[in-house]
Here is the input.
Amino acid sequence: MQTKEVAISATQASLDVTLSDDNKNLDEVLVVGYGTVRKSDLTGAVSTLKGSDLNRTPASSVDQLLQGKLPGVQVINSGGQPGAGATIRIRGASSLNGSKDPLMVVDGFPWGDAGNLKQINPEDIESIEVLKDASSAAIYGSRGANGVIIITTRKGKAGQARINFSSLNTLSTRANEPDLWRDPVEEAIYANEAAANGGAIATDIPYIGMTRPFGVGDQTIYYPSIAELRGLDPSKEPWRYNTDWVDLVYRNPISQSYTLSADGGTENTKYALSGNYYKEEGIAIKNDYDKYTGRLNIEQNLNKAITAGTNVVLAHTNNTGGGLGVGRSRI
Here is the structure.
């Protein structure tokens, strides 16, 4: 149907809209498991997403860019770790014990489950088709039981030589501050009360001015008393430690993505190559994710009946840091 915009007023209680057929969309060609068909002739359940429709937001993989774009496709982020992939489900879970991941097919070649989407640069994608019913995915057998994600990458065109460079940089901030102790005296008082209410003996109450074993070996740690924390102990100096771990550990992370691509060719030879560098910083310091991807596509017409080509995708990732949190004592 054709897109239609209608103005409404604040006092309008109801609205009737009549949409017109969009014949151009009916002639659109879709890629399915057994070839290509016109949209008007398609009887299976297929959703299409063009590469230009993907959000221009930095992400470590394509799966994170599919959220909310295709009906029947559920994308669940596993966490906030830099470079963490997402879980994809097509029309819900189809198995109790077996794999629930859909099959990924790139330019006609099965690549395995959807977790391998991290190997593809979003800038290289021409279109994505998701096959959701049994008839469309039947050609892939049991591998397509959970649905099929078909990705078509960009290829060179005869007579068009292009060089393109794109960059994307973002800065993220925390929406909310963690609810942690702000006053070391209150933290120590409640820790002592919790230990006492739990049945601890007097010497096991933490903050009473004692040195206790810590870790392995002969390491020790000193727990100051409440009076020492308040600066009321005449025999000791006021306690000078009050570490704000949120300010020390957390940061405003920056994400960067740079892509350089070139494509073109002649009637007999077509080429497309690209390289991408993606860097994502975690919210905690020293927690980073780096990804390098490269792609080379060449098609050569040997004669009118034979065409040879190659499609190579290389990816290297490096994840550093992790496990650094702010749930520590200010004391």
Summary: The radius of gyration is 29 Å.
